[in-house]
Amino acid sequence: MTTRDYKVLPNPDGPKPSPLPAWRLKRPWSSEWVLGFLLTDEVAVRACEKRGESVEDSEHKASDYHTIHRWVVQDLARKHPMPARFIHSPALVFEDRTRASMEFCVALVDLRSFRRSERGPPSVELVEEIADELQLKGKARVPRWYLLADLD
To answer: What superkingdom does the record give (predicted)?
Structure first.
């Protein structure tokens, strides 16, 4: 008999899959990162609709999404614990590792904060509530670690 004749059974004492999501398990070592959701134009449009305005008709023209993104962050900060550095203005982050484009982000974790509570991962329930409020779907519902573009 060769080893191919045997079935490999899972080891009951072996490593078990973690019930925690990947964003809670993988954390960058550098303090220049934040965990959060990107504030896309779709999120901005939904925020305007929620306030009873449209992006085109509001005093904030379509090019001024930063103001609308600030509304989103401030509304979330009134209801949920957010890093103090980003409760009045969203975090400016690089959208991907190439650093070719930047986007604003709802920061859930700020690794540069001196407050331990702002450096630790949020609960899964809190992340789900915020994703629901932002009406995110699919992959967008999973927060990611983003490199800060503005380190001031």
So the answer is: Eukaryota
Confidence at residue 132, expressed as pLDDT on a 0 to 100 scale:
93
CA distance 132 to 9: 40
d(CA 23, CA 130): 15
Please give the residue range of the domain that contains residue 139.
37-147
Q: pLDDT (tens digit, 9 = 90+) per residue, 24-80? A: 777 777 888 899 999 888 888 888 887 777 666 555 454 567 778 888 888 888 998
- Check residue 50 and give its pLDDT: 78
Mean pLDDT over each residue of the chain, to the nearest integer:
79
The number of angstroms, rounded, from the C-alpha of 67 to the middle of its chain's C-alpha atoms is 19
Cα–Cα dist 39/106, whole Å: 7
Answer yes or no: is 24 within a domain.
no
Q: Is residue 81 part of a domain?
A: yes
Task: Answer whether residue 74 is part of any domain.
Answer: yes
Q: Is residue 29 part of a domain?
A: no
The closest alpha carbon to 75, from 33, 123, 20, 130, belongs to 130
Neighbouring CB atoms inside 10 A of 77's CB total: 16
